[in-house]
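Thread: quick sanity check before group meeting

JM: Hey all, I'm pulling together slides for Thursday and realized we never actually wrote out the predicted structure for the chain we discussed last week. Dropping the sequence here so it's in one place. If anyone has concerns about the input, flag it before I start.
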Amino acid sequence: MHKYPPSARTSSDTKVSEKALVNNWIIKGRVDEKALPGLDFSPVFRSLMLVRGMTTPDNVLDFAFPSLGKLKDPSQMKGMKEACIRIAEAIKQKETIGVFADYDVDGVCSAALLHRFFLKIGYKEPVVFIPDRAIDGYGLNTRGIDELKKSGVSLLITADCGISATHEVAHAKALGMDVIITDHHEPEGLIPDALSVINPKQKDCPFFGEDLCGAGVVFHLIVALRAHLRKLGMENLPNLKDDLDIVAMATVADVVSLRGINRILVKEGLKVLNSTAHTGLSALAKISGIKNDVIARDIGFILGPRINAAGRISKARKAFELLITDDASHAISIAQELHILNRQRQEEEQRVLKDALSMIEEGGNTGKAIVVAGTNWHIGVIGIVASRLADRFSKPAIVISIIDGLGRGSGRSVEPIDLHTAVSRESHFLKGFGGHRMAVGFTIDADKILAFANALEESLLKTGPFQMPAVEVDLEISPTDITPTLLNELEMLAPFGVGNREPVFMIPDMEVIEVKKFGGTHLKVSLKHSGRIFNAIGFNMATSYKHIPRFVNVAFTPVKKHFNGHDYLHLNLKALSFV
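JM (edit): ok, ran it. Output follows.
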């Protein structure tokens, strides 16, 4: 264990009392019977929509019933026309097309989309290169470019990477390759001199503001390419709706906003996943023990981590093979292997997390951010550990693994802090970095880590005093408002995630009937109000609420579970405040 920097640093201790933790609530509204008249929904649902910023019936209907017909024309995305013309020419000339993809869920899904599309139109499969996390690190690299060149590639398409790879693109061009970049990460400085750069984060792109993941960008490319090939006279083109389950997988796993285009893609993708899913995803769901319909939460917490485990612990190629195979027995074999790799990933994660928590305890949980560094921590799990620390301490967290004098860092943020901007201000300490506002990755010489951490802390201090995040409650309601009709209406708002969080309601002055602890850190609570008894579950709340009085105000999300032909209600606790 490398003990510097011991933790984040600030000028004063900022420990927060339990009382402050449970009373920092923002209640956005109450039920208004007159909200959004003309809509045939319950008053609670209409009031919720108003609180969520939907001020007209059309806003509500568009959100509740998204459809593929409301997607933007992908041909309008910057760089799309040039890309489609060049790929069509490559197909006509029977060139070898190469794909360079990132090793995470998003990158692997992006590569699978391109691979499946070329095979479906009857073209030869592209040569796919997925880098090794430990050897290559993130992003387009010359080793992969050289490997693709040896395979005869003349047209290189990046997937979920490349927006900052000016040197690497120049290298590919020097070898005689044309390069099409598809990416969604923030542009850093100069845009590479590629034949085409497709990235909605470019400010002059008509899609600017759409928080697409890498696979979302690739999906728009193949939709536009399909239309272009049709104009050129190609027939029997595939129905791209069939691949939306892969797009949904990447979108949820990459934690981008589930609003706008992404909401449509995920909503429709989940329908595909639960009806005619690809052989590989069906096998993975089976091995993972998912018995009911897959929801966005299952992708984020069950399926996504297993696909990611390949790139973190072993080779991402295994996950790619799962997504492109149509052989059921082969798919089951790969899914089982990914399941085992995920267990190994969890073990490594717990080891690094334990070391990091020990450092934080030793140094004191202080400051605007947490920065910890260790020797030979597995680089495949440092991003997950950073996420765990950010969630636990409600502040940005950066975890750095030092190997042979070089640190590889991964950071995760919390709202409203833009970690990418904060790190970019101190990029002079770094050998390279990239990412977006909620997640960053970088490399740094070990002897510069302490100076970087101190500079980052000073930068974040200028953003204002530290505040514990408030518990945001959409509506205060009464127990009688929780009806089967409301639960059905709330299901229309799924999928939930970044940009579309689960609705949170509050019922004041509920009586606590019984409290039980389970799993070491979780709570089961029986609550009573207006003659109704509710069963509630508070995940990871046992340490925060050691002594619960008889009456409490309760913030929660109602959850409907279907089991053995019956629907059951429980409350997913978000917070308690004492009456």
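AS: nice. Confidence is low (pLDDT under 50) at residues 1-22. The longest strand covers residues 505-518.
JM: adding both to the slides.
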